[in-house]
Design brief:
This protein is of the alpha/beta class and about 140 residues long. The chain contains nine helices and five strands; from the N terminus they run βααβααβααβαβαα. Helix 7 links the parallel strand 4 and strand 5.
Length: about 140
C-alpha cells in the first residue's frame, strides 16, 4: 500500500483513538477530498484535520464542476452520499486503497475492485510495522 484515500469516518476514528500520528509513521501517501474536508469541518476533530491539511501531510483533491459531474455520473449504490462517492472515485483514479468503515461504501468499493481497508486493517498494519503494541492497539480500539 503506497497511497490511501480516507473517508470522514476513518479520519475521525484515528483522531479519536489517538492513532493519527501512528498512521503517518507508515509513510503512506494519504489523500481525501474537499467534500470530506467540508464534512469534517462540522466535527470536533476539525482542528487536527485542518493542521494536517495545512502542513500537506494529508493531500486534498478538490473537484471542479466538470470533475464533480463525473463523480456524480459514476454508477454508485443507492444511499451513497456525495462525500463517499468522491473518495471512491479518487481511490479508483489513484489506484489507492480506500480507508473506510462505512458498510455501503466498502461493498461498493469491493464490487468495483477497489482495495478497501477498515480500522481493524489499519491496526493490523500498525502492529505489523511495530508502530504500536498489541496492548496499545486494544486500548486504542476501545477508545474509538
Amino acid at each position: 500500500m503506497k497511497i490511501a484515500v480516507k473517508d470522514a469516518c476513518v479520519l475521525i476514528d484515528l483522531i479519536n483513538g489517538g492513532l493519527i500520528g501512528a498512521w503517518f509513521q507508515l509513510g503512506i501517501e494519504t489523500w481525501t477530498t474537499d467534500l470530506v474536508i467540508r464534512q469534517v469541518r462540522k466535527e470536533s476533530q476539525w482542528p487536527v484535520v485542518e493542521a494536517l491539511k495545512a502542513t500537506g501531510v494529508i493531500k486534498v483533491k478538490s473537484f471542479d464542476d466538470a470533475e464533480l459531474k463525473k463523480v456524480r455520473d459514476f454508477q454508485y449504490a443507492a444511499g451513497l452520499g456525495i462525500e463517499d462517492q468522491s473518495v471512491l472515485f479518487l481511490a479508483n483514479e489513484l489506484k489507492a486503497v480506500l480507508l473506510t468503515s462505512d458498510k455501503k461504501l466498502r461493498a461498493q468499493a469491493s464490487a468495483g475492485k477497489v482495495r478497501v481497508m477498515g480500522i481493524l486493517g489499519i491496526l493490523d498494519e500498525l502492529l505489523a510495522q511495530s508502530i504500536i503494541t498489541q496492548q496499545a492497539a486494544a486500548e486504542k480500539l476501545q477508545a474509538m
